[in-house]
Design goal:
The chain is an alpha/beta fold and about 325 residues long. It is about 60% helix and about 10% strand. Strands 2-3-4-1-5 form a five-stranded parallel beta sheet, sandwiched between helices.
Length: about 325
């Protein structure tokens, strides 16, 4: 190795050490565990854990560290904006009535080793509440499905990653057995999010995992998840899974209580502003869409303004394309 290469390697090591120190500091500030960091940065939980321990040396290390640098930058920028009063410090998760229903369904599946189906519209807090539950309780694994999951092997690979398998055997039967060996006897909970993307065979594979492992199973998604489990000619395919469902939690729209908790957290006091926010929250996207409008309204306010007004909220809604 020549002198220039040594200098480059030394600089990379120093940068990596500084990044590691900064990430650990922010994790401590937020009381954050590696799983939450991985989710927020869009990375594998297993790889992030190894990186935090200084053990990860995979070929994608530069890509991982770039994602962590982006996460760190976003966290610092958000804190600076909050310090200047642009964005109030609001918890990522709020104890709304709907969130508490979701928590109860997850706890039911977990503690009784049963199957729960939690389904309904977008923006009601299913995903973030599941993440909150996983942060507070050990042996909870969240496997998030996507449209690219078209077969059993891909589905099991996603579950294997979620439960922390370092390597996932090729072939559905081997992958299934590896997952069962990992989670059986833990008393844990497997949460499958965005399950509406899964075809019939994948949902049946989840039923097999549940039967073989004895851990709780929570299936979350939009309305079509429940329709798939009960609808028409598909009923025979799902008879074994449907008969095992112990709890069904349907979420249709945000309740008045959900709205009040969110608006109180943002400090929205003006009656006209709260009424407008309730209208925003009743649209597609629900509480998630309302939160985006509130954040945009805060960004658009002048430094001398201290309270979100109906005018600011209306302007933000229009800016985000919510008004004609």
């Amino acid at each position: 190795m020549d002198t220039q290469e040594k200098i480059t390697d030394t600089a990379q090591d120093m940068r990596r050490t500084m990044l590691l120190s900064a990430v650990r500091e922010e994790m401590e500030n937020f009381g954050m565990n590696p799983s939450r960091l991985a989710r927020e940065a869009g990375l594998s939980g297993v790889r992030v854990t190894q990186w935090l321990q200084g053990l990860y040396r995979g070929s994608d290390l530069p890509v991982m560290e770039k994602a962590l640098e982006s996460w760190l930058s976003a966290v610092r920028e958000g804190r600076e904006m909050a310090a200047r009063g642009y964005i109030p410090t609001i918890p990522a998760w709020l104890s709304t009535p709907t969130a508490n229903k979701i928590l109860l369904a997850l706890k039911y599946a977990h503690k009784l080793a049963d199957i729960a189906v939690i389904y309904g519209g977008a923006g009601l807090g299913k995903t973030i509440t599941a993440q909150r539950y996983g942060e507070d309780v050990p042996d909870v694994w969240i496997a998030t499905m996507t449209p690219s999951i078209s077969g059993v092997s891909a589905c099991l690979e996603r579950v294997g990653q979620a439960v922390g398998l370092a390597s996932i055997p090729a072939g559905g039967a081997r992958a299934e057995q590896a997952i069962v060996n990992r989670i059986r006897g833990t008393g844990g909970l497997l949460i499958v999010d965005e399950a509406q993307h899964l075809p019939i065979a994948c949902l049946d594979a989840l039923r097999s995992l549940y039967d073989a492992s004895g851990v709780g199973l929570a299936i979350m998604g939009n309305e079509s998840v429940y329709t798939q489990l009960t609808g028409g000619s598909r009923r025979a395919h799902f008879a074994q899974l449907f008969s095992r469902i112990g709890r069904r939690e349907r979420l249709t729209h945000p309740s008045a209580g959900d709205m009040d908790v969110l608006l109180d957290a943002w400090g929205v006091k003006e009656a006209k502003a709260r009424a407008l926010c309730r209208e925003v929250g009743s649209k597609a996207g629900a509480l998630r869409g309302l939160t985006k409008v509130l954040r945009m309204a805060r960004l658009m306010m002048g430094e001398e303004e201290t309270e979100l007004s109906a005018g600011a909220i209306e302007s933000a809604w229009a800016e985000l394309g919510g008004m004609a």
